[in-house]
Amino acid sequence: MTLLNEVIRRPLDPGYAMVAERRRSQGDPPRSTPRRVVLLLTAVGLGLATTAATLALRAPEPSVLAARSLLEEQITERTAAVERLREENADRSREIAELQAAVLAAEDTELLERIAADSLVSGAVPVTGPGLRITIKDGPPRAPGDEALSRVQDQDLQILVNGLWAVGAEAIAVDGQRLTSTTAIRSAGSAILVDLVPLSGPYVVEAIGDTQKLHTGLARSSVGTYLSDLTVSWGIGVDISSQSELELPSAARPGLRSASVPLGVPLLGGATQGPVGTGTPTGTVTDEQQDPAGSGG
């Protein structure tokens, strides 16, 4: 309170008061108005000069602006070209599938049915049908430092997916990524990868199959107990819902480098695979035949 009272009574520092009193006693004239105006104008001029210099230093060079504009145009053009090529590739794939189906339907209907069944299993074609949709999301940390324990791990998705296959799922996708027999689910740091595609939570697992069979089988299996433990122990959210219709995309197709027919297998039109050592065998497709540039199909 003493300090506050002192500040209120004597707001001016005693040193300033002493200097002012000494100047008055020595007869020094007070600062004139023109001098104050000059000081004010000088301060304003220095401030404007500093601001102008700062803006000049921060402004990009014309060459930098031109390079950035050119780079943006190239990115736009290349992106449009990639989209166009992707659409053309999808159209060619559909044409190939239609021609293949037409030829096989006339030559070998049994082979066509086997290819259709294998395409479903391998994930080569998109599928629709009833099934389950399971959403898993990270739980709140129970204590400081438990963030990793309350987060969905790659092994959680692995156990769930394997459990769905075991109870009769016909097709499965995780966040829109179709799973096949060669799909890998693993982690890279804090991210979960499905065939090198990073996913982010909440994770949506969709499985096509007999809805009642999937739901009952999952609840009675060890996977159901595992999911329940995730919720009780770590607060990880698990929501299972039955869906009358799910749409799963096809899996990413590997690039075709070469293809050949085993020896003795008849080809369409009655030709057979030629013997080894006679150059390019009959029925063999090489990179050069698919693409003159050697990039493969």
What this model shows, in words?
The chain is α+β, with helices and mostly antiparallel strands. It has a domain at 129-251: 2-Layer Sandwich (Alpha-Beta Plaits), CATH 3.30.70.1880. It has 9 helices and 8 strands. The chain has helices at 2-9, 14-26, 33-58, 62-107, 109-122, 154-166, 211-220, 222-234, 287-290; strands spanning 127-137, 171-174, 177-178, 185-188, 191-194, 197-199, 203-208, 237-248. It has a 5-stranded antiparallel beta sheet with strand order 3-2-7-1-8. Helix 4 (62-107) packs antiparallel against helix 5 (109-122). The chain is elongated, with a radius of gyration of 37 Å.
Tell me the fraction of residues in β-strands, as a range.
15-25%
Q: Which structural class do the helices and strands define?
A: alpha+beta
N- and C-termini, Cα separation: 87 Å
Mean pLDDT over all positions: 79
- The CATH architecture category of the domain at 129-251 equals 2-Layer Sandwich
What is the fold's blueprint, element by element?
Blueprint: H1 2-9, H2 14-26, H3 33-58, H4 62-107, H5 109-122, E1 127-137, H6 154-166, E2 171-174, E3 177-178, E4 185-188, E5 191-194, E6 197-199, E7 203-208, H7 211-220, H8 222-234, E8 237-248, H9 287-290
Antiparallel strand pairs: 1-7, 1-8, 2-3, 2-7, 4-5, 5-6
